[in-house]
Amino acid sequence: MMASNYNAKEEDGHQPAAIGHGGAGTVKNKKPDNTAFKQQRLPAWQPILTAGTVLPAFFVIGLIFIPIGIGLFVTSNNIKELEIDYTGVDMSSPCYNCSQSYSWNSTKPCTCSVPFSLDQPFESNVFMYYGLSNFYQNHRRYVKSRDDSQLNGDKASLKSPSKECEPYRTSDEKPIAPCGAIANSLFNDTLELYYIDPNGSRTAIPLVKKGIAWWTDKHVKFRNPGGNDNLTVVFQGTSKPVNWRKSVYELDPSDPDNNGFINEDFIVWMRTAALPTFRKLYRIIHKKPNMTPTLPLGQYILEVTYNYPVRSFEGRKRMILSTMSWMGGKNPFLGIAYITVGSVCFFLGIVLLIIHHKYGNRNHSADIPS
Amino acid sequence: MLRRRLNRLFGRDERKVDSRTIYVGHRPCPATEALIPPKFCDNRIVSSKYTVWNFLPKNLFEQFRRIANFYFLIIFLVQVIVDTPTSPVTSGLPLFFVITVTAIKQGYEDWLRHKADNEVNKYLVTVLEDGRRACKESEKIKVGDVVEVVEDETFPCDLILLQSSREDETCFVTTASLDGESNHKTHYTVPDTERNLESLSATIECEQPQPDLYKFVGRMHIYRNNQEPAVRSLGPENLLLKGATLKNTQKIYGVAVYSGMETKMALNYQGKSQKRSAVEKSINAFLLVYLCILVSKALVCTTLKYVWQNRPGQDEPWYNQKTQKEKDANLYLKMFTDFLSFMVLFNFIIPVSMYVTVEMQKFLGSFFISWDKDFFDPEIQEGALVNTSDLNEELGQVEYVFTDKTGTLTQNNMEFIECCIDGFQYKYADSGTELDGFCVTDGPVNILQQKAGREKEELFLRALCLCHTVQVKEATGQGDGVADGVEDQVDGVMGLDGETVGPADLGGFIASSPDEVALVKGAMKYGFKFLGMESKNMRVMNRNNDVETYELLHVLNFDPVRRRMSVIVRTKSGDTMLFCKGADSSIFPRVRQEEVDRIRMHVERNATEGYRTLCVAYKLLSREEYDQADTGLREAKLALQDREEKLMAVYNQVETGMSLIGATAVEDRLQEEAAETMEALQGAGMKVWVLTGDKMETAKSTCYACRLFQRSTELLELTVRTLVDLGRKREERLHELLLDYHKRAVQDAPPIKAGVTRSWSSANQDYGFIIDGATLSLVLNSSPESNSSCYKSLFLQICQNCTTVLCCRMAPLQKAQIVKMVKNCKGSPITLSIGDGANDVSMILEAHVGIGIKGREGRQAVRNSDYAIPKLKHLKKLLLGHGHLYYVRIAHLVQYFFYKNLCFILPQFLYQFFCGYSQQPLYDAAYLTMYNICFTSMPILANSLLEQHICMEVLMDNAALYRDVAKNAMLGWGPFLYWTLLGVYQGLLFFFGVRFLFSNPALQDNGQVFGNWSYGTIVFTVLVFTVTLKLAMDTRHWTWINHFVIWGSLAFYMFFSFFWGGIIWPFLRQQRLYFVFANMLSSVSAWLIIILLILLSLLPEILLLVLRKPRGPHSRQKKPVVQSGVGETQSPRSSARPLLMKTFSDESNTIL
Predict the structure, then answer these.
(1) Cα distance between the two ends of chain B
(2) pLDDT digit string, tens, across residues A276-307
(3) Which positions of B are annotated as active-site residues?
(4) Cβ within 8 Å of B, A 94-153
(5) What was the ipTM of the complex prediction?
(6) How many angstroms from the chain centroid is the CA of residue A229?
(7) Is B930 in contact with B346 (CB distance < 8 Å)?
(8) What is the pLDDT of residues B285-329, one digit of tens each?
(9) CA A174, CA B75: separation in Å to the nearest integer?
């Protein structure tokens, strides 16, 4: 099976071993060059892995990793996170009715309120995520079902989207904008947070919808065709995705910089998740200028406009409130992993050191060479 | 290639005529009524494979005939046809690259061949046409044309010499480009042809073309004025071969007999059988394993996909509808295409690039052998020659070495040592104090007479002067052409004797066999000078400085079967004498017995001392005897069929009843460092078998001299001599001996483990085995009723338990037979044959690795070898140094390639469990394509070219290190399993490490989340760094090149990722990786996981490195403690101490 690529030279009919009749002049050239490369004598560093060099490495790794791990672990533990499942699977759940009576055609949105309480205040910026489970955003058919040049504002692609978008390419003979399964299944629940004052009044918590998408996505990768003005005109002749209730230019009519393809909710959704259980950034609650916590402890209500059906594929919907650290969201795994690896290295170092001292003493002197 | 040859075979079969008839000058002959011009091929040489038109289809066809390429083509086609996860580009691009590079290379080589062909074919030659001289392009020459060739021109086709400008009707040629023999060979014109070629009317009948350069039989009918046609025999001495060069002769005329592709030169360049290395077998076995892994992965995924899809709501959730086409597709067809898609997704596990890298490694690596200045021999001004690059690693795996004796172990540089005349021993003393410098050093003690009679002495010396085929090299004035080509050889011969003045003042002797030169020179020392030939007269100057002339009547050529040669000469006085010299075994039966006894003792003693002995006999032929012999010889020479046999019969008939005059002893010195080399080879665990045509005593003494046999070695002899016993049948005796030896060498020997420590570390008895050709054929081809296969296996078992086996009196074919037998025996050990002469070609071709020595016996061995070295001593470095390194390099290369692709693809496989078995690739297409081409290919290539895990000097000084890699140790299933497990471990680690990190995909401090492409990019980054650093850890020899490629490819990866993600690529349908890499780097968590995973993946490697017995630094300055004494190399401490302790031992005892 191995190749015979270089054997052609053997079949070469014109390679007589014409050495005998070479004159003295040509013969001289036959002496191989005495270069370091050709003689395989290039100066080389020959690393020696001895106990002397490896043992300290183990200890150093241990000594570096364990503090990092502890730091990560503490950081992760300090992050406050709250997760609320509002799918409405249980009869007792406030959204049970909405999840049961779901139909695509209903014009009146179904809303439900999920009360919850915070045991401790959330300091600094709080990030609000929605989470979906058993939703295969990483399915191949789904992942490829988009047209990036259309999303980048290409007018030709707007009129005739890529074939990859099938079966969400055209509807009623008109091209869909934005086309494809990803865009079509845009998460369209609306989540609102209310703080219940001890006196019983509800205060809406300001949710900021900017800064949730990657900067480069928002400013380079996604573009409206022909600038951000007059989106209605630009998108004329296109059709809205079949499962959407409104057109793409109506995603955020209040803010032209957040409308159309550059709507951040849309951009966030278009970045397909890696795993079937995922979360996506929904809103940011900026910290207050004064010293009061962003979300003080107390009672809250999550108002959900329940539009997004997940029960057909046994999915779950969650709302997640989380603070952030320099390492991102809450994830104890990294800290634990660092502590474990650091300890293992340290332990190995000790074991090797013991062996080294027990058996290696006799030629210890020779142990530390050059 | 094969087809072409087959065609030729069939083509030949069609016109199954044994001979062809050629009309000289295309003139009809009186005997034949009508001239039917026979059709022969034209004189065009076609060595090229392609033309402009058929290059593309033919080359593509040939490339895709290779299974690997075909496999990749299929994968590519599947990608084009079926809707697969990766675009066809990912596998199409590498394949296209490989195919294109190969095609360009082959195209270039073919272009060179075309050019060379044209040069030969368009060469202008002069042809005699109807009495006029006409210039013609060489390719237009037709069989039957009379061609003129002038000095220093090469012959355009195979010619029969008709006329020469020299008076003695001879011409000189050199066949250096054919067989490398640079001496001038004399060729003769056909006797009795007319001087006027225009009126010559003749036909030539000769055999059909055949490749043997030294065989030609033909017959020429010359018609003269309605007389009975004269018939002349044609032999190789009349045939001028295409490719040979005319020397020393102004011009010749010859008639073309073979042209174009039918010339002997063209027939000889028909390629050789391809040798495949054992490493390739391992690669193929591994490939099979990986193919199984691939198929089972695809099967598992397909099955699970359909199990998963059966759950409600999973196959087609509302957010991910199928297209109409997908819905309509047949279920089974869908399953099949799904299976194919998975295959495509995982196909990177068997990478195209491995083949390219392995080829490159072999091709480039072989340059180091030809570049090695240690292989350069100042005497012949040449270094090593690599004829094939496929077998580099095989040099590190040799278990059996088959070596020729003459010219290989010994120098084939003969020196006359002594002679024995009529039972008295003569030795040449340098000081001329004794009478004529001819003194008796040793004689039979019981006889008072100290010297043989003067008459006998002179007869003996005359015999030495006459009985040979030596030519005297002409004085340099004859032509400048002589000077360059021949001088080396002549000087070599002369220089060794320290003699500067030859018989013809400046000249030297030229002969096909160095023995003859030695003998002629020996005679010269004693006062008899051979002055050369003068048109059939041999001139000899005797002690009284009188020139005697003898008419040379016949030469009964030497051949290896008869093992003797004779001449028939007529003295001035009219006596016809036959002088014969040959091996004792062939002479003794043909002389009177009482003479033999006196000389035998000397011959045998000389043989034990390692000299080559020849016996000289003579015979006075009576008139009748001569006439009878003369006619017999002439008849036999004219025979078209079975000429050889007929000649042989006549020879045997003539060479009887001779009387023995004496014997000569010629020393053949051992090659430089022959003993050290052999010792090193044995220390490296190789079995050395000496296969020689020489007689047993000589060979045995050479073996002792080379330290192949030690004093303590117990010799088991199985020769004709030991078989002749008590008048019993030879078969019985053979049977008995075999059983006895078997008992001693095999059964009684303590059981030794796995050959590795055999014979040198254990202090038990060494055995040496001696067998001769006759007995060997008895063993191999014994009659069917006797259990021959049993003999054979007994014989093999004995041989395998002996350190050295000596096979003497071997015919060339028997040598190959032995090699074949060992090659095919259990465990199929790797064999190596080394030889320098034409008689070694068969065994060189037969063995796994054939080594030619650029010796004195021509170039055939070199031409047919895989590697050629100038001296035997170079074998040590070739095997222990280069071979060992190449093996380690390629073994590491292969293992590493499989490993790195396993941990490349395993995460992709695992990802299927998380994406609904939808064949979603984990990595971006660019990464999939570039991984093997750019990111990880250069470091391993550099490593596999430059790595010296132990440096060359240490390898050479410690032959035992060779045993570490014996039996394909680094490509066994054990190491393979280790690498595979390492790959699996790392693959699992990469995937699940990132998987747990992604349980919360918010990895940046601004709360934004990462998607699936970030996931893949993190895994891929870890992967690239890990496999590159793993290689860095395996590298023991860091040259700047290693540093450059290792750190360079990592830097390139970073650069490429930035670049690839930094631009919206207009030609891409999806901008998947846009700023993914940069975003990843902005996340601290991603950094942390990457560092952690790299370290964790390499941790087992680091641990193993520490715990394994360290391979010390082996710095060049540091000479190992034990130099060559192989027996003591084993350090007493190393085996006794526990394993872990070795861990921390310093480098001083790490040689083993």
Answers:
(1) 47
(2) 999 999 999 998 888 888 999 999 999 999 98
(3) 404
(4) 125, 127, 129, 135-149, 152
(5) 0.91
(6) 31
(7) no
(8) 888 899 899 999 999 999 999 999 888 778 888 888 888 888 888
(9) 37
